[in-house]
Amino acid sequence: MPSTESPSPAVRVTGMKKSFGELEVLRGVDLEVAPGSVFALLGSNGAGKTTVVRILSTLLKADGGSARVNGFDVATHPAEVRESISLTGQFAAVDEILSGRENLVLVARLRHLPQPRRIAEDLLERFALADAAERKVATYSGGMRRRLDIAMSLIGDPPVMFLDEPTTGLDPQARITVWNAVKELTGQGRTVLLTTQQLEEAEQLADRIAILHQGRIIVNGTLAELKALLPPAEVEYVEKQPTLEDVYFAIVGDEGTAAPAAASTQDAEERR
């Protein structure tokens, strides 16, 4: 008979604690991330989200508790953990002197992968950066740098990805591009632990959402489970107004060009 046991969590954290001097940042964090899912760790500035990610990625040691990533203990098998993960921080870790293609080729070579140039070309196409492949990254917009940063983190096909506030400072179009990239990753079976302050981002991407507050997870569940914590509001009549995002894309369009209607009005005025 086939096994009915559920697969082991891709990430498991039990009783994680961390202090910086007298400041107690993590006070016993518990969470599990299922393989092939997006888990959003939601919280305000200073809640401890980045500290959790830094411990899980072996950049920082916990003061207490345990953590396992891809089956490996973070404290006792850090090398195996690092081979299993990629990390995208709050600010794009790209080399501005190099071109987009050169950044990707460099990472592929550092990982000792065959055909690094082909890997770079595939990622440039996938993240809509092919037209800017030869340009120095110093000339890239914030959204382009973020896309390049995520593309670099995919080299080597790590099964677990940590994205620490990946859309910080991005415009609406760049933000949605990053969201689509994250959705594509989980479609390929990757596991993503995402930290964010943006409620909409968690709603759009996450299979499960945990809220980290004052060093502890205070709630953890699916979006539907979290919504069920509050009673539905009684509304007799609702008129849906367009959101700012609706207005923005209606005017700007998908390609970042002004809508034709707006331009034609100005032309008509000039011909009078």
What's the CATH class of the domain at 11-94 and 140-241, please?
A: Alpha Beta
Q: Termini separation (Å)?
A: 81 Å
Radius of gyration using CA atoms only: 22 Å
H and E order: EEEHEEHEHHHEHEHEEHHH
What's a quick, concise take on this entry?
This protein has 272 residues and is α/β, with parallel strands linked by helices. It has helices at residues 49-56, 78-84, 100-110, 116-126, 142-154, 172-187, 199-205, 223-227, 244-252, 260-271, and strands at 11-20, 23-33, 38-42, 64-69, 72-73, 85-88, 160-164, 191-196, 208-213, 216-221.
SSE order and pairing:
Elements: E1 11-20, E2 23-33, E3 38-42, H1 49-56, E4 64-69, E5 72-73, H2 78-84, E6 85-88, H3 100-110, H4 116-126, H5 142-154, E7 160-164, H6 172-187, E8 191-196, H7 199-205, E9 208-213, E10 216-221, H8 223-227, H9 244-252, H10 260-271
Helix pairs in contact: 3-4, 5-6
